[in-house]
């Protein structure tokens, strides 16, 4: 079933996930919650050179934050950094090159980062991948799973000791409303069975990110974990991977700045941490992780099993 044939989800999207949905929600925003300096605080943002990742980097740079941009393409990353420095005057912006689909390199990057830097206050797992057809990485893992799930798990787990040593630590994961039509499935993590539908695989990964966030929040209570849906945003990734959707919805899509708003709010506001850790957000508000009357609920056992599978897989690729 295509994501966009789920009528309840699509109707919800038309009212809430669009530009108009953001404008409506923003009427209740308390703007002074973002009226602060984050000078001296350190942020790592994956996929920081375009779309909502770049918009979030720009917004946090304007507030004085030290930002580690983790990007796959060096030229695009350096170009984005130059834009951000020019617009904000903040030179504390550092580029790190990492392809999250290369699982061993994710470990190596995180371990090296911990040796080089003494603090990290906020990790924003924003980078994601939608594949048009199934492909595997050098380790034999399905590529979008490697980026969206295992890469996020390894990066987060490896950086937890550094986060825990830093004041007011936070981890934010950028999910998608597409996960609302997906029940957690742990029996086909590599998408080896059945027809490969890239958007549905992506939506399943986004459900796995929600479960991962909930579980990590339970085991690491001194870090504030959150996961968020940016809405339907006009980004190069959406245009390239979902051209029909992008074409039909173009006038209703959010700007990258609107899509990044809740990410920035979760990263810097004091108000965000007054909510319990491990929650799912849309437009600065905690929202349910399932549609009403949905069949998408999973058991605590299945959710714990996902984490143990990820832990086992992560250890397989850990450098010794």
Describe the protein's architecture and organization.
The protein is α/β, with parallel strands linked by helices and 320 residues long. It has a single domain (3-316), classed as Rossmann fold. 45% of the residues lie in helices and 11% in strands. The protein is built from eleven helices and eight strands. An eight-stranded mixed sheet has the order 3-2-1-4-5-6-7-8, with helices on both faces. β1, α3 (51-62) and β2 form a beta-alpha-beta unit. α3 runs parallel beside α4, α3 crosses α10 and α5 packs parallel to α6 (143-164). The longest helix has 22 residues, at 143-164. The mean pLDDT is 93.
The CATH C-level class name: Alpha Beta
- Envelope shape: globular
How many angstroms does the end-to-end distance come to? Answer: 43 Å
CATH topology: Rossmann fold
Q: Based on helices, strands and strand pairing, what is the structural class?
A: alpha/beta
Largest sheet: 8 strands, mixed
**Radius of gyration, rounded?**
18 Å
Trace the largest sheet across and list its strands.
3-2-1-4-5-6-7-8
Beta content? 5-15%
- What's the total count of β strands? 8
Q: Could you say what the CATH architecture is?
A: 3-Layer(aba) Sandwich
The share of residues in helices is 40-55%
**Secondary-structure element string:** HHEHEHEHEHEHEHHHEEH
CATH level 4 superfamily: NAD(P)-binding Rossmann-like Domain
Number of domains: 1
Unreliable runs: none
Average pLDDT value? 93
Helix segment count? 11
InterPro entries: NAD(P)-bd_dom_sf, SDR_fam, SDR_member_12
Organism: Kryptolebias marmoratus (Mangrove killifish)
Protein name: Dehydrogenase/reductase 12-like a
Pfam families: adh_short
């Amino acid at each position: 079933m295509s994501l966009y044939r789920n009528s309840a989800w699509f109707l919800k999207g038309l009212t809430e996930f669009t530009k108009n949905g953001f404008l409506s929600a923003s009427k209740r925003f308390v703007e002074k919650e973002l009226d602060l300096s984050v000078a001296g605080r350190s942020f790592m943002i994956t996929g920081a050179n375009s779309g909502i990742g770049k918009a979030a980097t720009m917004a946090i740079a304007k507030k004085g934050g030290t930002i580690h941009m983790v990007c796959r393409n060096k030229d695009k990353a350096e170009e984005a950094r130059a834009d951000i420095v020019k617009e904000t005057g903040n030179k504390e912006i550092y580029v790190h090159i990492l392809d999250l689909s290369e699982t061993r390199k994710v470990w190596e990057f995180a371990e090296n980062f911990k040796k080089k830097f003494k603090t990290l206050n906020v990790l924003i797992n924003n980078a994601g991948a939608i594949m048009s057809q199934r492909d595997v990485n050098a380790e034999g893992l399905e590529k979008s799973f490697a980026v969206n799930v295992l890469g996020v798990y390894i990066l987060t787990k490896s950086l937890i000791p550094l986060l825990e040593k830093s004041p007011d630590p936070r981890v934010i994961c950028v999910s998608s409303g597409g996960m609302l039509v997906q029940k957690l499935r742990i029996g086909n993590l590599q998408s080896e069975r059945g027809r490969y539908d890239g958007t549905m695989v992506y939506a399943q990964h986004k459900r796995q990110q929600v479960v991962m966030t909930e579980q990590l929040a339970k085991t690491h209570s001194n870090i504030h974990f959150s996961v968020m849906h940016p809405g339907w945003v006009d980004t190069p990734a959406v245009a390239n991977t979902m051209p029909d959707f992008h074409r039909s919805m173009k006038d209703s899509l959010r700007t990258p700045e609107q899509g990044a708003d809740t990410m920035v709010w979760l990263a810097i506001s004091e108000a965000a941490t007054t909510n319990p850790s491990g929650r799912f957000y849309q437009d600065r508000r905690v929202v349910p992780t399932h549609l009403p009357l949905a069949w998408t609920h999973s058991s605590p056992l299945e959710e714990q099993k996902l984490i143990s599978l990820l832990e086992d897989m992560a250890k397989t690729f850990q450098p010794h």
